[in-house]
Write a structure and sequence with these properties.
Layout (H helix, E strand, L loop, with lengths): L9 E11 L4 E11 L2 E3 L9 E4 L4 E4 L1 E6 L4 H9 L1 H5 L12 H11 L1 E9 L4 H8 L6 E6 L5 H8 L3 H15 L3 E5 L3 H5 L21 H14 L6 E4 L9 H11 L4 E3 L7 E4 L2 E7 L1 H10 L3 E4 L6 E7 L2 H11 L4 E4 L5 E9 L4 H16 L6 E2 L13 H9 L1 H8 L4 H6 L11 H16 L15 E4 L5 H6 L3 E4 L2 E5 L2 E2 L18
Parallel strand pairs: 1-4, 1-5, 6-7, 7-8, 8-9, 9-10, 10-11, 11-14, 14-18
Antiparallel strand pairs: 1-2, 2-3, 5-19, 12-13, 15-17, 16-17, 19-20, 20-21, 21-22
Helix pairs in contact: 5-6, 6-8, 9-10, 10-12, 13-14
Length: 511
């Protein structure tokens, strides 16, 4: 998909109500001046600036999706295993794993202007970049699964900090990555030796090694910080999806305390209970949120589950294989040049399913228990918890307590009676929704010109019609500008400019 609309590089959005947490504006009437794709100060001479009426509209920065899965071999495998979910259904239901062109168009039509794919093997980076080059409108980047590489594990095991920094820097540069992702630290080493999703704690040595997952996490986090990468180590910790795994996440947080790190899809790591006791399955969020609220260096995205059909895909092959065995659903598992792997399988989340209902409630409990929204990012771990086009529905669940109570009344009765969610009345304000979907993801990702509307910021701007129905409001922006170009209006594409690829430049490994 290519093309562009006639463009004027000088615009002024007049009369909008600004929600811009990064500059402290919360419902303030102001004009926004745009020149050459950036926001500029009001000029002394406004001649030549085209006026765009934003009167009566809510104006926010473009959305930033910090953690998604939109490209690379895993997404292609998902389209093959569930072609019906790649096409969409009944006309109005978008595909769970749309084509790369549709992905850009759908994100932009929601008001999102930046996306990161959170799990690309270095060996697959060139393929992912070729695909992302076809993703229209959005700026985009990739996180690299560098911790699956044997040489990285060897350097971490020897406590060779200089060599570890050199290898991480070389991986980022060669693969044009933005960040380092670890999916189940050391997990591929267990998986390749026949361990299939069973529990291992952070202090279980990798087979034949003295290196433990805990040590790997700590040393990788330090290497990423020392290299000055814009985004901290992106951590998908061990035991994803397993009952009782809240303890592993708690250990991960306490081990990383004092180090910068980002915790991925924490909903999938927050379960109480035991393997053989479905009745004990439930929420482990309370102690986790208490710990998280104390650890100022940690940030997180939630990975909210929403009901409906989708496709699970993860660089944690052991977890995917465990889920396939538990559900009887077909699994595609492919290797990453024998260093790691990825598991893909279709899944349908149901309101009356005990486990699915708990997952839904646990994600919302996370959102409503974290005290500082600047350390939290709105996500569904697309497409694992739900398709990204469900974000407006999630925003309404967060911002409308009555709507959330109605949804809670429909789910499995045991979850209704036991979940702490039933006693939480908190509602996100528009400003807080702007933080978790824009300002915080941009800050956490290390994008100072994104997620804000101050002078010098990228002119990625969205205008919404205010509506008490937050799902309706956020699903259909009146206008979406990407770098000052009107790209979508009332759900219709107006232009498809090429976005830029975001790549990090590590500091010298010897520094």
């Amino acid at each position: 998909m290519t093309g562009s609309a006639p463009r004027n590089d000088r615009l002024v959005l007049v009369g909008g109500t600004i929600h811009d947490p990064a500059t402290g504006r919360d419902g303030v009437a102001a004009d926004i001046w745009i020149e050459a794709g950036r926001i500029v100060a009001p000029p002394a001479d406004p001649a030549g600036f085209v006026r765009v009426d934003a009167g009566g509209l809510v104006v926010m920065p473009g959305g930033v999706d910090l953690h998604s899965h939109v490209a690379g071999p895993k997404v292609a495998a998902g389209r093959r295993i569930a072609p019906q979910l790649a096409r969409g259904r009944r006309g109005d239901t978008p595909a769970a794993i749309p084509t790369i062109h549709a992905t850009g168009a759908l994100y932009a039509a929601l008001g999102y202007t930046t996306v990161f794919d959170a799990a690309i093997a270095p060996a697959a980076a060139a393929i992912a970049h070729r695909e992302l080059a076809e993703l229209p409108i959005l700026d985009k980047g990739i996180y690299l699964l560098a911790a699956d590489r044997a040489d990285v594990l060897a350097a971490a095991g020897k406590a060779d900090a200089a060599e570890l920094r050199r290898l991480v820097a070389a991986t980022i540069q060669a693969s044009r990555g933005w960040a380092v992702k670890v999916a189940n630290p050391g997990g591929p080493a267990f998986w390749k030796r026949g361990r299939r999703g069973d529990h291992h704690d952070l202090d279980t040595p990798l087979p034949g090694e003295s290196l433990t997952p805990r040590i790997l996490l700590e040393r990788l986090a330090e290497a990423v910080t020392d290299l000055g990468l814009p985004h901290p180590l992106h951590v998908h910790t061990a035991n994803l999806g397993l009952p009782g795994n809240w303890r592993t996440l708690h250990e991960t947080m306490t081990s990383l305390a004092g180090r910068r790190a980002h915790l991925a899809h924490v909903q999938f790591h927050s379960y109480s209970g035991g393997d053989l006791d479905e009745d004990s399955f439930g929420s482990g969020v309370a102690p986790l949120a208490e710990c998280f609220n104390r650890c100022d260096d940690l940030t997180a995205d939630v990975g909210q589950v929403l009901f409906g059909g989708t496709v699970a895909m993860t660089g944690d092959s052991a977890a995917a294989e465990h889920l396939a065995h538990a559900t009887g659903v077909p699994l595609v598992s492919h290797d990453g040049h024998l260093e790691g792997g990825c598991g893909i399988l279709p899944i349908a989340y149901k309101e009356k399913n005990l486990i699915h209902a708990w997952q839904w409630a646990i994600g919302l409990e996370w959102f409503l228990s974290v005290t500082d929204p600047w350390r939290l990012c709105l996500s569904t771990d697309h497409p694992n918890g739900a398709h990204f086009t469900a974000y407006p529905h999630l925003m309404r669940l967060l911002g409308d307590a009555a709507f959330r109570r109605e949804a809670l009344a429909r789910i499995h009765p045991r979850v209704r009676s036991r979940s702490p969610l039933s006693s939480i009345d908190r509602e996100y304000s528009l400003q807080e929704l702007c933080i978790v979907s824009r300002a915080a993801p941009a800050r956490i990702a290390g994008l100072p010109r994104k997620g804000q509307l101050g002078v010098g910021a990228d002119a990625d701007i969205v205008c919404y019609r205010p509506d008490r129905d937050l799902a309706a409001m956020f699903a259909m922006p009146a206008k979406v500008f990407k770098a000052g170009v009107l790209v979508a209006e009332d759900g219709q594409l107006r232009a498809t400019p090429a976005g830029q690829t975001l790549t990090a430049q590590p500091a010298s490994p010897a520094a």
